[in-house]
UniProtKB/TrEMBL annotation:
SUPFAM superfamilies referenced in this protein's UniProt entry, alphabetically: Glyceraldehyde-3-phosphate dehydrogenase-like, C-terminal domain, NAD(P)-binding Rossmann-fold domains
Gene Ontology MF annotations: nucleotide binding
Cross-referenced Gene3D superfamilies: Dihydrodipicolinate Reductase, domain 2 (3.30.360.10), NAD(P)-binding Rossmann-like Domain (3.40.50.720)
Entry's family note: Belongs to the Gfo/Idh/MocA family.
Species name: Anaerocolumna cellulosilytica
Origin superkingdom: Bacteria
Name recorded for this polypeptide: Oxidoreductase
Amino acid sequence: MKIGIVGCGFVASYYATTMPNHEELEIVGVTDVIAERARKFADYFHFQYINSLEDMLSNPEISIILNCTNPHNHYEVSKASLLAGKHVFTEKPMGMDFKQSYELVELAKQRNLYIISAPSIILGEYSQGLMKALNEKEIGKPLLAYAQLDDGAIHHMRYWTWISKTGVSWNYEDEFEVGSVLEHAGYCLTLLTAFFGPAKEVQAYTNCLVPNKVEKSSKPLGPDFTDTCIEFESGVVARLTVGSVAPNNHFLTIVGEDGVLSTDDLYWSVQQKVYIQKRIISDSNEREGSHEYLTSKEEYKFKRPDDFKYKTDYEVNVDWAKGVSELVAAISQNKKCRLDMDHALHVMEIIDVIENAKHFSGPQKIRTVFETIKPSDWLYDEK
C-alpha cells in the first residue's frame, strides 16, 4: 500500500529504516516544512521528494499518511490528511490534549477512515508474551502492576551527539518543552490498558523539577516527573512513574495471586526476555526460609516470530514500521486494527489527566472505553 511521509526529522529515520521489513509498504514520497531536510531524507532513503503537504494530499496514489512531524503539528497534519480522505498513522501523541485527539478519532469514524497512533509497543514480542501469560493465568488473577520509565537526567547527557542517519539532530528543545508525560507515558499506558482493560480512575502528581534545562529559552518546559496511580475496571491497580530526572529505569512488574511477571526494559527492546516467578505453597513449620514465597526468577518461554532484518542503530531494537504494516493489514482486510483508535483515545484521556495534574490531580474518572486488544496471530500460529 502506498504511503506518504510528512516530517523528515529525527524519528522519521527510524520508520524509514525499518520499512523494508514489510514488503507491502511502499513509500511514494516525503515532505517537510524544511525543504532541504526533506531532500536529504529522500536522497538517503531513495524516496521521491514532494514539494508540500498539499501536493502530497492531492496525490490519489497515496492511501496512508505517516505523520512524523513535531508533536505540536500532529493535530493539524492528521486533520488535513483525514479531510483529504487519507488514512493516518501518527507519531505520538495523537494530539496535544484529549480534545484534539477526540476530534481526530470522530473525524476518522465519520469518514470511514483509520487514524492510528504510536506507540505500537503492544505488537512487540515481549508485550505479546506478557499478554499470553496473563490470558493463560500463569500468575493467577493480576492484582498490581508497577511500570517505570525513567530515562535518566537527559539534560546532563551529551544529547548534541544524537544525530540521525540523514544528519538531523535530536530536537532537545522541543522534547523538553513537550515534556516526558506526552512524549513517553503512552508507552506504559498502552501496555497497561491493553493488559488490564479500561482505566476507571486516575490520580497523579506531575511537576517540572528542573525548569532551566534549556538556556536562554522563554518557553515553559513540560513536566519531567510524574507518579500516577490507576485503578482499572478489572480491579487491577497500577503505579506508573515517568520522568527524565532519575537514573535510567524501564522495568515492568505485574503481581498476581499466584506469581509475578516482569521485564527489565519496557521501552527500547521488543525482543527482551519476560521473567516469571511462581508462588511457593508450603505448610512447613520450619522458621528457616519462612519469608520465601516466590520461586527464583526464570525466563517465561513463548513462541516468537522470525527476527526482523532491518534495524535502527544504537540501542533501539524496535521494528518501528510494524505498526504501519498492522494498519495496512486492517485496511486491506477491512477489519479492526489491533492498534485501535478507541484504545489510543483512552490512553490520551489518561495522559490528559496526568499532564494537567499540577501538582496533585485528585481522583479523576476516566470515561472513554475500548474493546479488548487481541494478541497477534503469530503467537498461536501452529505452523
